[in-house]
Amino acid sequence: MLLIRNSLPPDLKAVIFDWGDTLMHDFREKPGPMYLWDRIEVVQGIPEFLEKISEKYKLFVGSNSGESNTEMMVKALERGGIAKYFNGFFASTDMAYAKPDPRFFTTILQSIGYESNAVAMCGNDLVKDINAAKSAGLFTLFYKIAETNNDISGADIIFDNFKELDGLF
């Protein structure tokens, strides 16, 4: 299921990804930081997608990282073999703001040096990732992994498999 409401911005320079359940599966029953879990799992299609788009765009991770700080988040991404694709990492535990506060995104934009119209947010949480990023002026890609009764009209692109994005970037 791929729904494109708006085309990618022509001046797109960077993509921010949520971490849990967008890049790596978040097994909520597991205690402690993800990098210490006995089992981790990268979302299907993510390594190939990141490899492809990292040639053209700067990639970042922006996450309400639960029990993990930025360093721990990077360790989990390294363990999953995908940290190498990212130019920067932002965990709310090390920031003044957390999603869904739009200042979470404006803080990242200031740090990476891009205007909001040049950045997209890709995430699986409609409120924390999509609506918050949209209110900060970012283009949004909603990774719809579960049914929702919430209004999804704020998402520019809606998809449920990263392979569906082939040819868009």
Helix content: 10-25%
Q: How much of the polypeptide forms β-strand, as a percent range? A: 15-25%
Largest sheet: 7 strands, mixed
Number of helices: 4
Q: Give the integer mean of the pLDDT values.
A: 94
- In the CATH hierarchy, the third-tier topology is known as Rossmann fold
Number of domains: 1
Count of distinct strands: 7
CATH architecture: 3-Layer(aba) Sandwich
The CATH superfamily turns out to be HAD superfamily/HAD-like
Structural class: alpha/beta
Contiguous uncertain segments of 5+ residues: none
Instruction: Work out the radius of gyration.
Output: 15 Å
Strand order across the biggest sheet?
A: 1-7-6-5-2-3-4
Cα-to-Cα separation, first versus last residue: 17 Å
Essential attributes:
alpha/beta; 4 helices; single chain; Rossmann fold; seven-stranded mixed sheet; 169 residues; globular
Briefly, what is this?
The chain has four helices and seven strands; from the N terminus they run E-E-H-E-H-E-H-E-H-E-E. By secondary structure, the protein is an alpha/beta fold. Strands 1-7-6-5-2-3-4 form a seven-stranded mixed sheet, with helices on both faces.
